[in-house]
Fold this sequence. Notes:
The protein is α+β, with helices and mostly antiparallel strands. It has helices at 8-34, 81-90, 127-141, 164-171, 184-193, 204-216, 271-289, 298-306, 318-326; strands at residues 38-39, 45-46, 59-62, 72-76, 95-102, 114-123, 145-148, 151-154, 160-163, 226-232, 241-242, 245-256, 259-266, 311-317. It has one domain: BirA Bifunctional Protein, domain 2 (2-Layer Sandwich). Helices cover 36% and strands 23% of the residues. The protein starts with 7 loop residues before the first helix and ends in an 11-residue tail after the last helix.
Amino acid sequence: MPLPPWHPEAFAARLPFLERRAALTVATRAFFAARGYREVETPALVAAPGADVHLRAFSTRYEAHLGQGASRDLWLRTSPELALKRLLVAGAGPVFELARVWRNGETSPRHAPEFTMLEWYRPGLGFEGLMAETEDYIRAVAPRLVAHGAVTTDLRLAFERISMAGAFDRWCRGLDILATEGDAARLHAAAQAAGFATSADEGWEDLFFRLLLEHIEPNLGRDRATFLTHWPAPQAALARRDPADPRAALRFELFVAGLELANAFDELTDPVEQRTRFIADTAERRRISGERSWEVDEDFLAALEHGMPATSGIALGFDRLAMLVAGAREIGDVLWL
């Protein structure tokens, strides 16, 4: 039977990894301070915990005391994103946060239901600029060679940049993913023409992610780190559409040593479009989960209406980065408890 994490022997086995994590935290704060970022802390208990329709949040209920306010449902945040963007509206940017976040049902060697997310936002920084800054950050805090499992990545090499359209063309036998535009029938036809089996019960998103996970992600972030850019517009989330090709969104993910490490957007600032997306996402979240969900975040939309500066922002799994920096095999090795 495994020893509990507080047992001195178990702690001693993790201590070398934890010391490297602590050094990574110091180096992270130094990197952002040198670039003029302000470190902030935002609430963990919120009315709307995040935007991703596939994430399940932990819920609780606030009980009003002595007539102070009203009782209401609250949630532990899945990301500090919406709070940090409110601070951009307030004029606090550029900002970063080492935020504790929670995601229900996520446990694996790479996942924990409670973990640390590093997020940063710089007004005026564009999509390409954020990729360059992310590359600078990773090189500043990590050793030149990092490994996970059988995959070793050399961070001295320029980070690869490949669009989602290019990735599907390369690893899915010429499939034109942007031409399917969220249309399940089109994607089924394109996938079958490329020689892939499909299932009638797969929607566009189901089939998109299956092809992505099975045929594209295993090729990313191996010898060199990879930015997977310009996601199909149905996967825009909180990102702007690409002005050069509205079928794509200005979103990228970063892969290092085979690990998905970060997700980033050139941020959507249009409150009308954001409201439309929130309404659709709320309905889809309830359809997927069959459970109650949070309502549209009206306070965030009010902030957008007031005016958020043009911004790019990124969410990076800090524990996963700590695994790579420390040479740890799984996320539990870099958690204090």
